[in-house]
């Protein structure tokens, strides 16, 4: 079922009771100066678990019976943390299945939240097989990362908040992976203000939704290391909702390079005093690289802060970073 505004309003009630927070919208004076339009940052890094994904996971968990055997999901990290946190809030057991490509900091984070982290295979699709087995053989409830009405509705609560916080908003820049976030925000925002623009932004390498939109069907995309690791993974070969919603509701999808993400992470740190992960910086990357044309007040989503701190300090120090076997050449900020 495709969610509607009423589902997103209901999600807001449900997740408020499960400790998902309304998050601040703060000015970015330097992005404003560079772009010529007011740019504000929606700080989902202040959410419990450090990313917006708690909204969708809490909404899905709120709808399960209290005696469910447990919950599972397949995740590149932030969704897993969110499911772990939401399950603990409901007193449910959680087993989080993830691929070997997930950074250690994210695995540790999930264990610290009291869930089991089960590492399977080299892709999200392989980890998915184990999650499906838990559902079929052990009666677990799966909380999928994006392609589900409850998840889309939960993420969509950001769209409601944004328009309350800033009724003049023209454009929303949304980091795009599986599309639950972009679909939810676009559903909510366009239901209230039909002519608002919602633009999805992904990294150039491994942008699964972008490839699917071009092909008009899910296509398999090689998962490659990226500074925006939270944007990795496929959209699912059986995608039922987010591809269609992104096709119908997104005004554009823009791709940014690894060095553009690198510079945008430096920018958020030095100009906005923010520690955020690569996925959070793609909006600024697109603005700074001139890849989006702004037409008025703009919000960009700072979606998460769960970055490996060694990588982060290398980036803000201008050092090279390794992406798998490739070197991404560093450069001091402002050089
Ligand atoms: C999951 C995630 C996204 C993308 O959300 P989708 O619903 O998969 O498109 C963006 N940023 C961060 C930090 C994430 O964890």
Could you explain how this protein is built, in words?
- Helices cover 42% and strands 15% of the residues.
- It has a six-stranded mixed beta sheet with strand order 1-2-10-7-8-9. Strands 5-4-3-6 form a four-stranded parallel beta sheet, with helices on both faces. The chain has a two-stranded antiparallel ribbon with strand order 11-12.
- It is built from 13 helices and twelve strands.
- It is globular, with a radius of gyration of 18 Å.
- The chain has helices at 5-17, 29-35, 54-62, 78-90, 104-112, 124-138, 149-165, 180-192, 208-215, 242-249, 258-272, 282-288, 309-316, and strands at residues 25-27, 39-43, 71-74, 94-98, 116-119, 141-142, 171-175, 197-203, 252-256, 298-302, 321-323, 326-328.
- α3 crosses α7 and α7 crosses α8.
- 55% of the residues are buried.
- The longest helix has 17 residues, at 149-165.
- Bound molecules: pyridoxal-5'-phosphate.
Summarize, please.
Its EC number is 4.3.1.19. 42% of the residues lie in helices and 15% in strands. It has helices spanning 5-17, 29-35, 54-62, 78-90, 104-112, 124-138, 149-165, 180-192, 208-215, 242-249, 258-272, 282-288, 309-316; strands spanning 25-27, 39-43, 71-74, 94-98, 116-119, 141-142, 171-175, 197-203, 252-256, 298-302, 321-323, 326-328.
